[in-house]
Specification:
heterodimer; A: 301 residues; mainly alpha; MetI-like fold; 2 domains; B: 326 residues; 13 helices; globular
Chain lengths: 301, 326
Amino acid sequence: MKENAFLTKLRGWRLGATITMLVVVVIWALPTVGLLVTAFRSRDDSISSGWWTAILDPLHQNWSLESFKTVFDPQYWDIGTSFFNTIAVAVPATILPITFAAFAAYGFTFLEFKGKEVWFSLIIGLMVVPMQAAIVAVLQMFVALDQWLLTIPGNEYGDFHLSGEYPAGWVVHSAFAMPLAVYILRNYMMTLPTALIEAARIDGASHFQIFWRLIIPMSVPALASFAIFQFLWVWNDYFVAFMFVGNHNVLTYTILSMLGQHGEGWQVVMAGCLISVIIPLTVFFSLQRYFVRGLTAGSVK
Amino acid sequence: MDAILTAIAAVVLGPLATFALYYVGNFIVSHLPSNKVRKALGPYVFIAPVLALVGLFLVYPTIQTMIFAFMNEDSTEFVGFRNFNKLFADANFLQTIFNNVLWIAVVPIVTVVLGLLIATLTDKLGPIRERVFKSIVFMPMAISFVAASSVWRLSYSWNSNGPQIGILNAVVQAFGGTPVAWLQNESFSINSLLIMVVVVWANAGFAMTLLSAAIKAVPEETVEAAAIDGATGWQSFFQIVLPQIWGTAVSVFITVLISTMKIFDVIWGMTGGNFHTNVLGVDFFRQYFVYNNTGKAAAVVLLLMIAIIPIMIYQVRTYRKQEEIR
């Protein structure tokens, strides 16, 4: 009898929860649905009526791919180039910090040395330092470096420089990601069985061998979740790309320019946004489990 | 295509080069004559490159910026507190500080409460419903703030004559109200609040995910015991579940708090900091790139840093405490 009352209560609670969540989810999805629908509307339609009218009456619409023609036009927005530029920033900026961070995380987890706690506290503290604090001086460092490069024979016109180029973006992204990367990877390595490592030590393996043969293979889940996290972060970044990779327009930059001129209709901006979210959404939905694991491992960014 | 070739080269050569760096470091240290020196330097083979990178690109530049805050616009001479005096004499800057305080007061708490609500509501549903609902709430996390600004600007858009194509104004109209130019509307900081909605929309999924994991880790027995003792749903939530997930809630709060303090992209994309929606992160950008005033830009950042330092201390302390338990 008591059990029954409990079940009825639970069922009622579930119904209420489902209804509430449906409302929440509809509100949450609205902007994204608007993006998707608007991108495929004609200019006239998108100026004269809300995108929801297209959903309510999909058969009497001038659906159009005109907006995509505009955004891909090499004479105009040339978003194809922005797309590849974004890949060129994001992929190395994801791969490079991982190697560095993995070595450091090993050092902080399995090696004993003086000052370890102090160094690691520094890393933790740096996780919360806003990027803005470092930007000005880092920009000046690159300018100074380029000045120095001019003195190299054959580079009098500065053909070889770093400011505004991809390597600057990779280095800056790697450095800014480093504290979080080390923190996540160390937290994971702490959970690995130390007995295994001690056994390997007794067998005469060097730390370098243990790191490469044992720890890296076992840390793949953590490496993957950091990689996804970092890739999404860099792909979606505007700040660093604008300041350090200024010679190559990335997607966020191009979309912001479109937004400045949305007089030509929202369908163009939305088409640009759609192109920009395809990769992150694919990564996100196919690797969601790893991503969530990375979040729970401790993120402060 | 050049872009892709450069990227491929970096992806192949970069890790090889870093690996070589460590390998050479390890080789040199392991061939040092004295055993004592070898023991002392060994660990630094692993951590020194990271310390160097972080020192060069984070620690040194941050200190440098703090010094710039007391120098003139092109960092050629010291001017004492002039930058700060000028900033605080400007009514617009006081508005900027007020906006930052408003952001800090609203966004983290709303995000955590909403995330907790969604996590609790989805927890007892069937696995399919739970997954679908969570995925939809989580999805905005994968979208850039620039794209999010675009989508929400459309949602908030206003037409002086003709039909409303922004959904907010369409709703207002459907209820018989007069459409409003929302993002230009400064009264009661309504435009700032509407931009905050975007950030909550983007971050609630993060809060939900972490809190949901915490709720699932609450031992079933504790909740059942409370039910047997006759606790209502509310009582068991506030007295049994909440205390057990409190640590997670705090860490989510702190994470969102930090990202809120340095918020930039959304406001830059939505209003550019105009119509009294400016915050420190945007003001730094404007001072440096629009007005070319390094001194003032650095002063703005220094204020931001001062606000963040207590959180930094808190983080390090929490870490220390965790280490003691381990």
